[in-house]
Amino acid sequence: MDNASSRDAEFTSYVAARRPQLRRTAFLLCGDWHLAEDLVQTALAKLYVAWPRVRRNGSPEAYVRTILVRSHIDETRRPWRRERSSSQLPEVAAAVGPPLEEREALLAALASLPPGQRAAVVLRHWAGLSVEETAADLGCSTGTVKSQTARAVARLREVLDASPATGGRA
Amino acid sequence: MSHHDDIPDERLYGALREALEPEPPMCSQPSDDLRRGRRRLRRRRIGAAAGVAAVLPVAAIVGWTVPSGSSAGPSSPGFSGASDGPSNGHLSGRCVTGRATAPPRHQGGIRAAKGRATAIAGSACRAVPGKPIGIRPADRLTSVLSNVLDRGGGHLSSSGLAAAANGNAGDLGYLSVAADWHDGVRVGAVDLSVLDPAAGTAAESIDATAPCQDPGLAGGPRLTCTTRRLSDGSAVQVGTGSRAGLVRITVRFDRPDGQLVWATADQASHAWWGFGNGAKPLAAPPASVAGLVALATDARAYL
Q: CB within 10 Å: which end of chain A, N or C, has fewer?
C-alpha cells in the first residue's frame, strides 16, 4: 500500500469511528446540528491535510477538538447564518429525550456562556478530558481551565437546579 | 460554586447527553470527508505551487542579473502551469445536487459556486455560473486586511493571516480571511469576507432588508445597525454591539457588482475568551468603525 492509500485508509477508519462523537461535541459547542455538521466537516478536512504529522504525534482527536473550538468562534463572525437555512437533512423523529423546555434551557445556558467557559465545560464534562488535556486542547493553563469550568458549571447547575425534571437528581 | 468543579460531574454529563436528543442522522459519510480532505490538500498544494510561481519572475531576474548564479532552479518548466491554475481557470457551469456533492475539477481551478443544498431548494440540479476562487483572491483579501489595518505591521498575527477559503465543501462562493491579535489583556480577531450571491452560495440566508444580519448565533452579540453614506454616495451598514464582554463591530458593503463584503472585528478580555488564539502578543489593530469601513470598501477586496 502506498503512502497515499495508507493515509486514506487510516483517515477513513478514524472518521468512521469518531465522527458521531465529534459531531455531538460540535453540537454542544454551537447548539445547532447543521452548524455542528459544518464544523466537523471543516475540522476533518483540515485533519486530512495534517494527517501525517498529526498521526505521527498520535493526537488526531486533540487536533480535531481544537479545530472545532476555534472554528466555532470563527463562525460567529461570519456574516451569513448558514445554520438558519432550511436544509435537506432528514426529518428528525419526535423528541424522545428530556422535556423540550429543559433541553432548551440547558442549551440556552450553554449558549450564554463565553466561548472559553463553554469549550471548557464541554471538553471536561462531555468529552471527559482531564484538566491537563483540556488545557492542552485550548492552549491555556490548567488554572484557566479550572476557573473557566467552575464558572460554567455553576451557571449550568443553576439551570439544572431550576428544572423540575432534574432538580431532584443531584 | 463547588470546590470540586475539576471533577467530572455525572449529573451534568447526563444533562448534556440528554440535550443531544433527538440527534438527527448523519448526513455525511467518511468517504465525503475523505473527498473534502483530498480537495483541501490539493488546494493547498496548488497554492504553494502558485506562490512559488509568483516568486519565479523575480528569482529568474535575479538569477539572470547575477553572472555567476545558477538559473537551473527557477527556470524549471514544471512551474509554468501552476501559475495558471487557480486564478485563470473558468468553468462553464455545474450541476449541484446537494451539500455532499463533489464539485467539478478543472485543472486546479477552484470554483466559486457553493454547492450547499439549501441554496438551491427546489432545484434538483441546475447550472451555476461560476468563477474561480483560487489562492490569489485569498492573498488579495489578506493583503487588504494587512494594508488597511496593519500597514506598519505589528498588530495582526502573521499566523492568523493565513488565507482560507472557508467552509466545508471547498466549492465556495465566498471567501474569508481572518487575523488574530492579543495584547496580553484583550484578545481579538478581524475577519474580512466576500460573498458572491450569484454563485448560488449561502445567499438565501442573507436578508437584504436586514443590513446587519442579526448574529443570532450562539455567543454573538445582538447588533444595532445604522446606515452611513460615504463621500462617493455609496452606503455601508454598520453594526455594533456587545454581549457579556465581547465587543463586535461589523460593516457590510454591497458592492455595485453585486458582491457583498463584510469586515468584522471582535474584541474581548482574555478572561472572556478563555484561551489563547495562537497569536503572539501584539498591539490592538485600529479596528474602529472607520477602519472597518475602509476595509470593506477597499476596491481591491473582491473575489
A: N
Is residue B238 classed as helix, strand or coil in its secondary structure?
Answer: strand
Query: Which of 33-92 (A) contact B at CB < 8 A?
Result: 33, 35, 37-38, 40-42, 44-49, 51, 69-70, 73-90, 92
Q: What is the pLDDT of residue B160?
A: 40
Average pLDDT over residues B92-119: 26
CB distance B24–A112 less than 8 Å?
A: no
> Is residue B280 classed exposed, middle or buried when 0-12, 13-18 and 19+ CB atoms within 10 A define those classes?
exposed
Q: What is the C-alpha to C-alpha distance for residues B201 and B301, in angstroms, rounded to an integer?
A: 18
pLDDT confidence of residue B197: 65
In whole angstroms, what is the distance from residue B301 CA to residue B139 CA? 10
The side-by-side arrangement of strands in the sheet containing B246-254 is B163-164, B174-182, B186-195, B260-269, B246-254, B235-243, B224-229
- Candidates A6, A44, A102: best to mutate against B (most CBs of B within 10 A) is A44
Which residue in B225, B256, B255 sits closest to B238, CA to CA?
B225
Instruction: Tell me the H-state helices in chain A.
Output: 3-30, 33-57, 60-77, 100-112, 115-121, 131-138, 142-162
Mean pLDDT of B216-230: 73
**By the 8 A CB rule, do B85 and B52 touch?**
no
CB B281 within 8 A of CB B230: no
Comparing A169 with B22, which gets the higher pLDDT?
B22
pLDDT in tens, B256-288: 877 778 888 888 887 777 766 556 677 777 778
The yes-or-no verdict on residue A14 having pLDDT over 90 is: yes
Please give the mean pLDDT across all residues of chain B. 61
What is the value of ipTM here, to two decimals? 0.82
Question: What's the pLDDT at A83?
Answer: 38
Q: How many CB atoms lie within 10 A of CB A10?
A: 14
| E strand segments, chain B | 163-164, 174-182, 186-195, 224-229, 235-243, 246-254, 260-269
CB of B199 closer than 8 Å to CB of B130 = yes
